[in-house]
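If you are new to this repository, start here. Below is one unmodified record pulled from the training split, so you can see the exact layout before writing a loader.
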Amino acid sequence: VEVEAWTPPKPASEPAPKKAAPPPPPPPAKPAAEAKPAPEPQPAAEAKPEAKPEPKVTGQMVPVNKDD
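And here is the target side for that same chain:
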């Protein structure tokens, strides 16, 4: 039985399983998924309404160019 306790070959087996854990490349993919859920670009839709007033300014700029 003492021989079993002295058998340090078990630790060698553990290092192998640990190597399999290092390959956690899926986590990086999660950040990308979080970037998708961040549909905060929706505010851009609100910016569109503001873009409407801008078109009016462009119309005035056109006449100015015509004056030139």
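Two things worth knowing about this chain: The mean pLDDT is 54. The helical segments are 2-6, 9-13, 15-20, 26-35, 43-51, 53-67.
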